[in-house]
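Dear Dr. H.,

I hope your travels went smoothly. While you were away I took the liberty of generating a structure for the chain from your last submission, since the lab meeting agenda had it listed for discussion. I wanted you to have the full record in hand beforehand rather than looking at slides cold. The sequence, exactly as received, is reproduced here:
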Amino acid sequence: EISCSLVGSEMCIRDRLFVCMISSEVGAQNQLPVYLDESRPTEERVNDALSRMTLEEKIALCHAQSKFSSPGVSRLGIPELWTTDGPHGIRPEVLWDEWEQAGWTNDSCIAFPALTCLSATWNPEMSYFYGKSIGEEARYRKKNILLGPGVNIYRTPLNGRNFEYMGEDPYLASVMVVPYIKGVQENGVAACVKHYALNNQEFNRHTTNVHLSDRALYEIYLPAFKAAVKKGGTWSIMGAYNLYQGEHSCHNKRLLKDILRDEWEFDGVVVSDWGGTHDTKQAIFNGLDLEFGSWTNGLSAGTKNAYDSYYLAYPYLKLIKEGRIGIKELDEKVSNILRLIFRTSMSTLKTFGSLGSPEHGQVGRKIAEEGIVLLQNKNNVLPINLDKAEKIVVIGENAIKMMTVGGGSSSLKAKYEITPLVGLEKRIGLQAEVVYARGYVGEPIGEYNGVKTGQNLNDDRTEDELLAEALTVAKDADYVIFFGGLNKSEHQDCEDRDRKQFDLPYNQNKVITELAKVNKNLIVVNISGNAVDMPWVNDVPAIVQGWYLGSEAGSALASVLVGDVSPSGKLPFTFPAKLEHVGAHALGEYPGNKEDLAHSKNWGDTINTTYHEDIFVGYRWADKEKLTPLFPFGHGLSYTKFAYGKLSVDKRSMTVDETITFTICIKNTGTCEGQEVVQLYISDKKSSLPRPVKELKGFKKVRLAPGEEKEVTLTIDKEALSFFDDVRHEWVVEPGDFEAIIAASATDIKKKVKFALK
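The corresponding predicted structure, in token form, is as follows:
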């Protein structure tokens, strides 16, 4: 009878094979056990399941059984947990015990834009649609945990993994991460926010021991994680590889127990990064729940089953059986894992999902279009006027190179990828001639972990020959579009490697400089997840930040370049004029203590690093040091113009129990529809501790037709005025004078108004 009632549902096809296993549990009472009854409170179900499990079954739940899965309890019909890498798409299937591809032909996904692009939309609605769509793809692939999103703060432009994160500002990242999580988890898939915490570089990522003030920790590096827990309700968190205060982050008492559990009341699962666990007792007592990847070579470690030898496997069981430790911590871990299983793999409310759908492709395209940033547009070179253009020359490897493969664990097997050249050719069609020249040669082969792009971009010509060809075709062109920047190869935008230089690689600076001499309508599109040096900035009329845009990259870029869409992206991090204008480099502690680096002889040697810039990261540092950035945080131009009217405030003073609302009228004074991001910064005029000149505390994206105007309101409370006092270990708000700053970027100040806190 039970089976018949479930025919046609997913329950009896895959996740609910336990239906025929539980007859002994149902027994004469003819009713489900409490843990299987979804109408009962979750904690009752957790306690009931826990009471039925053996010690060995509990231990098994705490560690992996394959590269990307952990076991359930088959005797009780409790299913496995399956994880998948994100955060930009669903990773292709690998073999059970190896990193090699499983050879599936139905695991191609939609590649969504990198999270730097999502953050550049400054649009929480886009973040929700992103999470919902990628969650549907994960759900279709029967994945229970999506390993993302990432919210580590952009501390240096050399960090190879910045493209996976949401920028330099803790408030922006906090606002953008919440709807992503909610969208993912609506599908019955857990978001796993990473990498908690202080994983701000890839160089020596396993051995870097971070030192910083509590003030910097709480004000800069933790807020996005806190928002993920308190506002997003994330069901899981991934620990980081690095150390903090001498303990690895995946079993760091301060981070996992004192802050995550005790202060934030997190009730989800702490997952180790793959290979991030190093000690059994620390893992037991310091808050790790689920261990993955401690031997990434599967079963070749010389034991009968390598997974049973994980730190939270047989060594844990042995300690308990010998009476050296109790089971209090074990029951806490298993309770957390069971709670996650009830929310995901055992939930009958989860959707079926969908994979590689046209709808998901269009979501990715919309996000890409909103995230593309117009950095510079002298003489209104953009948008391209197709009515007057007969010949458009496209130059650069990044115009033809597929970018969905590579970069580390976020590498994808995309169902399709539209390159910039193809996107332009499809959009322009017969309206103009499109001519391509290589310009430079970077990485000719695209491959990661067995997934290959199929492209062979080998070119044996010299740099001088490539440059000569580019200059020849560019001279008489109506427009020249150079697609360059970085790629996802080692030492560029790539996991486990930091960039070696701030400059563009592959002779690109010379190519751009020479192109600017022969054509006045040069457009440079920088494809990267990081800021880059631009010594030619004054010679190039138009510059576009193009990010890694996923499957619909070419379509989105073409839409913006020809003016089908007016650009509305804003930078989520500062482009410094030079590397020495970054606090981490100005104070000399990146990538670590010089003495430690000099004396390090072995791979596992600890490298200490101190964040001497403290809370002054990104635009905070530029403001403090009075530095002029190449392009400031929050910057982004449009094809239309916006006028900011009078700024009004509902009160001139507030108490700590009140809010204060700022209202400003924005008008589109241009000739096309566009979107503007109204940014609110707060400046504390007098404080007992040093504070940034200003800090982002609110923003709103508004769409306006030509001639249209709207009122934009932004409300703050005492949280926006507070700072963390690391002596008192609490958030403090001091009475006094403040200033609200309405701006179009961190340096483009439009209006100011003073107010007081009583």
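Two observations you may find useful: The chain has a mean pLDDT of 94. Residues 652 and 755 are 5 Å apart (CA to CA).

With kind regards,
E. W.
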